[in-house]
Amino acid sequence: MNILLLGSGGREHAFAWKIVQSPQCSRLFVAPGNAGTAEIAHNIPLSVTDFLGIHQFILENTIDMVVVGPEEPLVKGLVDFLQSKPDTANLPIVGPSQLGATLEGSKDFSKRFMQRNHIPTAAYETFTAGEISAGLAYLEKQKLPIVLKADGLAAGKGVLICLTLEEAKASLKEMLLEAKFGDASSKVVVEEFLQGIELSVFVATDGKSYKILPEAKDYKRIGEGDTGLNTGGMGAVSPVIFADEEFLKKVEEKIVKPTIAGLEKENIDFKGFLFIGLMNDGGEPSVIEYNVRMGDPETEAVLPRIESDFVDLLKGIATGTLSEYKLNISPKYATTVVMVSGGYPESYEKGFPISLPSATERSVIFHAGTARNSAGELVTQGGRVIAVTGFGGELNEALANAFETVGKISWNKAYHRKDIGQDILKLMKSS
Asked: Which UniProt keyword terms apply here (predicted)?
């Protein structure tokens, strides 16, 4: 198969790394890709939102399947666009329709979907600028802390946890009246704060059948001990001790099954990956949010644990034959440590040369924000630069292997958290 993969981050490098391991992949193109994908596939200078360019490339290069990595082209309707063209109408695509992508593109749509389909989630109300008085009055009746979420896509920055009523009121005004997150906060979901331990569960679906992929825990804040600003993710661990067999059975029965049934019942075309952000509160799961693609950096910890042919999985999703796929998961641990540019998630410099060690069997290096400069040097190009995944039969071993490789990577002002996985190790010791 000739496969086109859209995206440029660590998630897409992990996808590319897994796809090229399959004997079914003849040629892999990545648009736009990064310096890591360039080493194993053909990078194409196309934006993920250049729908006309993508369509033309598919025709010129006899593409047999398209795999969409990030959410933006999905929310903007790439799948619908390609399906509206006679020459790509039946092309296998891994990614939901625009309506399906609204599960991530609109928090309000997502919450209403959960309510209609009796899926456990936090209590909420949604407000617009014209309803600011009602929104402020609603805040006065709620328990603290309280969560404010911009309705639309806000690059992972549109969620605020407010500890005081004054902070909540000021934030609601900023979001609705001063467009704190641009158009994304033209509507704001005000939500009950859920207690418990957070984790991510990933589901592959062809719209009717599904396969539950390995679960993971990610680390969102920049500082050790989960302090400081939220980021796109500083690390991930898979599997996790607080998602045992009993808990995951509850997730399947109370969340996965009614979600897939709801998509089918409401005629929402969804052939892709569904990321379910969960809270485990005393063994009971609640949905924090849906994403309509794989998470990053969780992908870099989840995909290495899939032992069965990954292109077969993608084909099953895209062609409606997922029920025939046999998913095999490694019992080993995979732990990911993200290395970022100094200053991230706020302003940072680019263009620093990167020194990388040779590959080992104990870890793998995924590129995220990397590029080649005019002299051919590998340099920093983004905030999250490198994700290192270590493997091991025990969590300690996997972490040691990841950090050993991290210690051999350097560039000016590089930063990483040294406490990834330590909270889970403590839980394991105490249990």
From this structure: ATP-binding, Ligase, Nucleotide-binding, Purine biosynthesis
